[in-house]
TrEMBL record:
Pathway: Nucleotide-sugar biosynthesis; UDP-alpha-D-xylose biosynthesis; UDP-alpha-D-xylose from UDP-alpha-D-glucuronate: step 1/1. Residues 97-386 form the NAD(P)-binding domain. The chain crosses the membrane at residues 27-49. It is an enzyme of class 4 (lyase). Its main location: Golgi. It comes from the Eukaryota. Its cofactor is NAD(+). GO terms for molecular function: NAD+ binding; UDP-glucuronate decarboxylase activity. This is UDP-glucuronate decarboxylase. Catalyzes the NAD-dependent decarboxylation of UDP-glucuronic acid to UDP-xylose. Necessary for the biosynthesis of the core tetrasaccharide in glycosaminoglycan biosynthesis.
Length: 406
């Protein structure tokens, strides 16, 4: 190997001045870029934090909803109602409705599906009917489980609407399953940290000595009467709900439902509105028990569903009376049915049933104040929609098929 070759290789191994300067500049540029990025990120974060703080302060200042002691779970921090910000889609909840194939439950399911939630209906079809929810078959956000809530059930859900319980005398005297089902569903709510709504009843007031009935009234119930399996069963259900709320931290809501009517009611369930409508359509005498002067208040099913949803999404435990304060005697109700169906419909008087309340009218001041709710549908407006549904089911008159959905 010659001397000239060694000198040439030695020259290649030494860095050139220009390359060395470029390498040093590259390092400087990198450090400058990192510094600028850090500065921009810090300014952006501070701006976002200040904006959120401003919005939060304005919201707290303008809000009329009282503060609560418990922070709501993640499922309830999403936007559950009202307007959704532009460009954002409301997060749907996973909700179970026990008794969801029944009269009230099926209308509630319609509203929840329409709102964008995923709904699981649990029903043993003792009083429910698949036809009430079959229009949701094929919807990926709808599930139907045939199950009796007196047996435990494991599901992962955000909310539980517990409606499963026979509500008419004909059915609850035959199969009183109130307490065990409520206990099982409260256990589920505790395990999965779900919010739980109990549909109680105005029957907890019994044959009231206070009129109208406020939520603070403790009732006048015969604990061993023929109706006690329902009356006392619902009172125990409320007790269990409050014990789970106080002792286990379950978020519960309690609704005391007054007489409700509308499409999809059971035709022969023994309740006064369905009795009168079915009898008048069949040209049978309308049976009035006692002297017909006992009073009831009747709310349309869509009003009730609205109240239940507002209660569930609100921050108040209750109980809340959900009913229409418009008060009718049984004879006045019979007259409205006559005017709606058949002016020549006859009335037949029969001996009154045991422990039948003489007066029933809700005081809904609490629901108005805390839920912003009151019924909108008057009896003379809602009854014709129920009559159309009953006519279709009794006589197969399909021209009124659209009336089954409110």
């Amino acid at each position: 190997m010659g001397l000239s070759e060694l000198i040439h290789r030695g020259q290649k191994s030494q860095p050139k001045p220009l390359r060395y300067l470029l390498q040093q500049q590259r390092l400087v540029f990198l450090l400058i870029g990192i510094s600028i990025s850090t500065l921009i990120f810090s300014i952006s974060s501070y701006s976002s934090y200040s904006s959120n703080q401003s919005i939060s302060s304005t919201t707290m200042y303008n809000s009329k909803i009282p503060t609560i002691s418990r922070e709501p779970s993640l499922a309830h921090r999403v936007n559950l109602g009202g307007k959704v910000p532009l460009g954002l889609k409301r997060k749907g909840l996973r909700i179970v409705v026990t008794g969801g194939a029944g009269f009230v439950g099926s209308h509630l399911v319609d509203r929840l599906i329409e709102r964008g939630d995923s709904v699981i209906v649990v029903d043993n079809f003792f009083t429910g009917n698949k036809e009430n929810v079959m229009h949701h078959f094929g919807n990926p956000r709808f599930e139907l489980i045939r199950h009796d809530v007196v047996e435990p059930l494991l599901l992962e859900v955000d909310q539980i609407y517990h409606l499963a319980c026979p509500a008419s005398p004909v059915h609850y005297k035959y199969n009183p399953t109130n307490v065990v089902g409520t206990l099982n569903m409260l256990g589920l709510a505790k395990r999965v940290n779900a919010r739980f709504l109990l549909t109680s009843t105005s029957e907890v007031y019994g044959d009231p000595l206070e009129h109208p009935q406020k939520e603070t009234y403790w009732g006048n119930v015969n604990p061993i009467g023929v109706r006690s399996c329902y009356d006392e069963g619902k009172r125990v259900a409320e007790t269990l709900a409050m014990d789970y709320h106080r002792g286990a931290g379950v978020e519960v809501r309690i609704a005391r439902i007054f007489n409700t009517y509308g499409p999809r009611m059971c035709i022969d369930d023994g309740r006064v509105v369905s009795n009168f409508v079915a009898q008048a359509l069949r040209k049978e005498p309308m049976t009035v028990y006692g002297d017909g002067k006992q009073t009831r208040s009747f709310q349309f099913v869509s009003d009730l569903v609205e109240g239940l949803m507002r209660l569930m999404e609100g921050e108040h435990v209750g109980p809340f009376n959900l009913g229409n304060p418009g008060e009718f005697t049984m004879l006045e109700l019979a007259e409205v049915v006559q005017q709606t169906i058949d002016p020549n419909a006859k009335i037949e008087f029969r001996p009154n049933t045991e422990d039948d309340p003489h007066k029933r009218k809700p005081d809904i001041s609490k629901a108005k104040e805390f839920l912003g709710w009151e019924p909108k549908v008057a009896l003379r407006k809602g009854l014709p929609m129920m009559v159309q549904d009953f006519r279709q089911r009794i006589f197969g008159d399909h021209k009124d098929a659209s009336s089954s959905t409110v």
